[in-house]
Design goal:
The protein is built from one helix and six strands. With 114 residues, it is mainly beta. It has a single domain, classed as predicted glycosyltransferase like domains (Thrombin, subunit H).
Length: 114
C-alpha cells in the first residue's frame, strides 16, 4: 500500500510512551497515525512533558515525539521529531494504520496548508 505522508490513518494499537527518564512506561493507544505524528489516548489523566518517546513494545524501535496539544490530559497529539528516520516513521504507519486515511476536513486541524 502507498501512503501519503500527510494523510492520517485510523489505528487502534497498544503502545508505550516514556517521559524523560525512560524508566516508567505509560500505556497508551495509538488512535490515528501519519508519518508526521499520531493521536494518543490514555485510560487515565496524565501530565506529560513536552518531549516523550513512543514504542509499540519493549525492545522495539523508539520514536522521539513532541507533544503538540492535549485534551483533558487523556488525548494527546504528538509530532514525530525530525531526529527519527523517515523509514522509522513509515514503518510505524505501516504497522499501525488501517487501510484508508481519515477524511480531511477543509480548514480543520487535520488539513494541510496549501
Amino acid at each position: 500500500m502507498t501512503y501519503d505522508p500527510y494523510d492520517r490513518y485510523p489505528a487502534c494499537v497498544d503502545a508505550l510512551m516514556f517521559a524523560g527518564d525512560l524508566r516508567s512506561p505509560i500505556n497508551c493507544v495509538i488512535r490515528n497515525v501519519s508519518e508526521g505524528g499520531a493521536l494518543l489516548a490514555l485510560d487515565r489523566p496524565v501530565q506529560l512533558p513536552k518531549r516523550i518517546y513512543l514504542t509499540l513494545s519493549k525492545g522495539a524501535q523508539v520514536l522521539e515525539c513532541e507533544v503538540r496539544w492535549r485534551s483533558s490530559n487523556r488525548l494527546f497529539g504528538v509530532r514525530f521529531s525530525p531526529n527519527n528516520s523517515p523509514e522509522a516513521r513509515r514503518a510505524l504507519v505501516e504497522t499501525c494504520a488501517f487501510s484508508r486515511p481519515v477524511p480531511r476536513v477543509k480548514g480543520g486541524a487535520g488539513s494541510r496548508a496549501s
